[in-house]
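Record passed on underneath.
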Amino acid sequence: MKLAKPELTDQEIDRIVEMAWEDRTPFDAILTQFGLKEQEVIELMRREMKPSSWRMWRERVQGRATKHLAKSAVNDARFKCTLQKKISLNKISKRK
């Protein structure tokens, strides 16, 4: 039995396109949030983008480890500058 594709609003389509362009957002996150599989995201991107933009996106995404949770590094740490102030209880801790 085939599941029905979810009806998406213009805002949701914009968000999916934005998430698909982001390097660190895996297809699994789009599946969880919007119920679209990788192939459906590819079809949506092809439909919503100009042909040249779609080709550029496809080249960029194909084979990228960060777009697939199974291929990405487990301990994917984010960079934080040593000069960045620490935030504690929504207040910058250095202020008085």
